[in-house]
Amino acid sequence: MITTSLALIILSHQDQPVDIPKAELAKSAPCVICNANGESHGDEKPAAGVKYKGNTYYFCSTKEVATFKADPEAFMPPVLPRTMPKFDLMDTAGKAWNAEAMKDKVVLVDFWATWCGPCKEMKPIIEKTHAEFSKKNYEVLSVSIDEKKETLTGFLKKNTFKNPVLFDSTQTWSEWKVRVIPAFFVVKNGQVVDQWVGKKSEKEVRAIVEPHLEK
């Protein structure tokens, strides 16, 4: 018979990632780290795997196991919809953006940086969909996570944006649990209703955003 204390110990162990023996690895599976970083390259022969909370996660490199074990919850599928984390920033035109300012809009919050190549590659795609949906109460907030505001200011002198640009002066990205950029969050009625990281095609972005817009 399992005592209460022993049962608690067993349950606590289930909450810790447990390595899967190499002989028991799946023949083909996606890498959880690459998927979370927006760098999915499909199914492949995994180099390692762990069990965590009743589920199995695989990795394309053994070095990624330590990253997962350090914070496994960071790699769990996001809960959608969920309450929007705290957001209170001012754009370069002096307008304050917070939950109240986003009310009655569908807002794509884009965390990016001037040094991020994929972020800049997504810019024309985001701008095109913004122009397409702007009459449906759709807005895009480009939130720079550059360390210095001067870096952003210099970048904007040579690069124009057709949507509000904000400097993340309060590390809002941390509240939103941003691990990699570009990171995108679709917000509606105070809720995060969709999200993704990394590059996507114009068709993919439209398919994510359009269902949340006014018909």
Structure description:
With 215 residues, the chain is of the alpha+beta class. It folds into 2 domains: 4-75, no CATH class; 82-212, 3-Layer(aba) Sandwich (Glutaredoxin), CATH 3.40.30.10. The chain is built from 7 helices and 11 strands. It has helices at 4-14, 32-36, 64-70, 117-133, 149-158, 172-175, 202-209, and strands at 18-19, 48-52, 55-59, 82-83, 89-90, 96-97, 106-112, 138-144, 165-167, 183-188, 191-197. A 6-stranded mixed β-sheet has the order 4-11-10-7-8-9, with helices on one face. A 3-stranded antiparallel β-sheet has the order 1-2-3. The radius of gyration is 20 Å and the shape is elongated.
Keywords:
alpha+beta; 215 residues; single chain; Glutaredoxin; 7 helices; six-stranded mixed β-sheet; 29% helix; elongated; three-stranded antiparallel β-sheet; 11 strands
State the gist of this model.
The chain has 215 residues and is an alpha+beta fold. It has helices at residues 4-14, 32-36, 64-70, 117-133, 149-158, 172-175, 202-209, and strands spanning 18-19, 48-52, 55-59, 82-83, 89-90, 96-97, 106-112, 138-144, 165-167, 183-188, 191-197.
